[in-house]
Specification:
With 406 residues, the protein is an alpha/beta fold. The protein folds into 2 domains: 30-251, Spore Coat Polysaccharide Biosynthesis Protein SpsA, Chain A (Alpha-Beta Complex); 330-405, no CATH class. 35% of the residues lie in helices and 24% in strands. It is built from 13 helices and 17 strands. Strands 2, 3, 4, 5, 6, 7, 10, 11 and 12 form a 9-stranded mixed β-sheet that branches. It starts with a helix and ends in an 11-residue tail after the last strand.
């Protein structure tokens, strides 16, 4: 074990965390959607992005706010002429993603804020599906979209974000493919490029943490801190975007630079967000060991320095271990057309039988057995989410299991 490997692990053991009071939620806002779009030299992307938005927003009250982030391609003048109803917030010099969107959020006046990247093309029904999720899930913080990619491009994101890794050397957060019929499944966080947030809850968390430069992981931070308050995020299958991946960042940073930023910001996330000392030590140790084995930047010396930064966060009201078990890829929700709720265990997640979906209002499938943490988390969250419905528990019948799981 190298000196800096030991130093990085030891530094994690001495992390200092201080608690702060949750910020006020503020006055009640008019119901509607404020769409905030950060854009740096993105006029060509905005031409398509804005048209997609404008074609489907009615009858919901809405506004579009473009944060012109240090552009020199004439975006501001073009917006003023071609999109006079779009509110433009101008940053003279380029800002990080968090700083840019926070300027847009500060200008927003409606009850819900949609953060939308200019390289995300919203398909028909996108806003309606996200909006409806807030009518169905109590205390919802964020509804996040299904992300697709152009034909022939490898799908790097799906919208179903989980904390899980197939191999210890893999990055610990990934996107899983959704199952046919799956919708409103609890997920770890919503993509900062295509999600709808409750503006009052967003304000209570201080909006997007500006510690993450120039981009990446700020949405994970936001979703985690919301879960700590008992405010969930769900994946919305009917809200679909096509992502022109890294259409802006790749013009200003190399792939290697972006990979380094991702690793640095993940370490910052661990230090700044994880409240449980035991959970922090486990996740920090796994991160340090992974960097040591793979030799990925930023290096263990830098990791040790990050661990010694003082972290400040809101007091936790909801168990991190509980929501982490719920969002580790072991749980999926399937809306049905019947009454009451079925909570079922299964050896592998797969679409429930059609007759079961006709019988129940929703089926919550959990990979594993009733002794697992994911099952206990799903049982508690199902009772909270559907308080008026009875929850039936069962195991998925043998006939409904995929052949490879038998």
């Amino acid at each position: 074990m190298s000196f800096w490997h030991s130093a990085a692990r030891l530094a994690g053991a001495f992390r200092i965390r201080r608690h702060e009071a949750l910020r006020p939620m503020g006055a009640e806002r008019e119901r509607g959607i404020s769409v905030v779009i950060p854009s740096r030299n993105g006029r060509a992307l905005l031409e398509t992005c804005l048209a997609k938005i404008d074609a489907q927003m009615a009858p919901t009250p809405y506004e579009i706010i473009v944060v012109d982030n240090g552009s020199d391609d004439g975006s501001a003048a073009w917006l003023a002429e071609a999109w006079a109803r779009v509110r433009t917030v101008t940053a003279e010099a380029p800002l990080s993603f968090a700083r840019a969107v926070n300027r847009g959020i500060a200008a927003a006046r409606y009850s819900h804020v949609c953060l939308l990247n200019n390289d995300m093309l919203a398909e028909t029904g996108f806003f309606t599906a996200l909006w409806d999720a807030f009518e169905q899930v109590p205390d919802l913080f964020c509804a996040t979209a299904q992300i697709r990619f152009p034909a022939g491009v490898r799908r790097e994101e799906t919208g179903k974000a989980v904390m899980a890794a197939d191999h210890p050397d893999d990055f610990p957060v990934r996107c899983d493919e959704a199952i046919d019929g799956e919708d409103l499944t609890w997920v770890l966080y919503g993509s900062g490029g295509c999600s709808l947030y409750d503006a009052s809850k967003l304000a209570a968390l201080g909006n997007v943490d500006e510690a993450y430069e120039p981009a990446y992981v700020e949405d994970l931070d936001l979703g985690w801190r919301a879960w700590q308050q008992g405010w969930p995020t769900v994946y919305v299958a009917g809200a679909v975007v096509e992502h022109r991946h890294r259409a802006t960042t790749s013009r200003y940073y190399t792939a290697a630079e972006l990979d380094r930023v991702l690793e640095i910001n993940y370490l910052k996330f661990l230090v700044r967000c994880i409240d449980s000392r035991a959970l922090f030590r486990r996740l920090w140790g796994e991160a340090v060991d992974r960097l040591s084995r793979t030799g990925r930047p930023p290096g263990l010396r830098a990791a040790a320095g990050i661990a010694l930064e003082v972290s400040r966060g809101e007091r936790v009201r909801f168990s991190e271990e509980l929501f982490l078990a719920l969002t580790n890829g072991s749980v999926a929700v399937f809306p049905g057309s019947g009454a009451n709720i079925l909570l079922a265990t299964c050896p592998a997640l797969t679409a429930p039988p059609a007759d079961w979906l006709r019988q129940f209002a929703a089926i919550v499938l959990v990979r594993g057995d009733r002794d697992g943490a994911a099952y206990n988390a799903a049982r508690l969250l199902a009772a909270w989410r559907w308080p008026a419905a009875s929850v039936t528990t069962s195991a998925l019948p043998e006939s409904a299991r995929p052949a490879h799981s038998r």
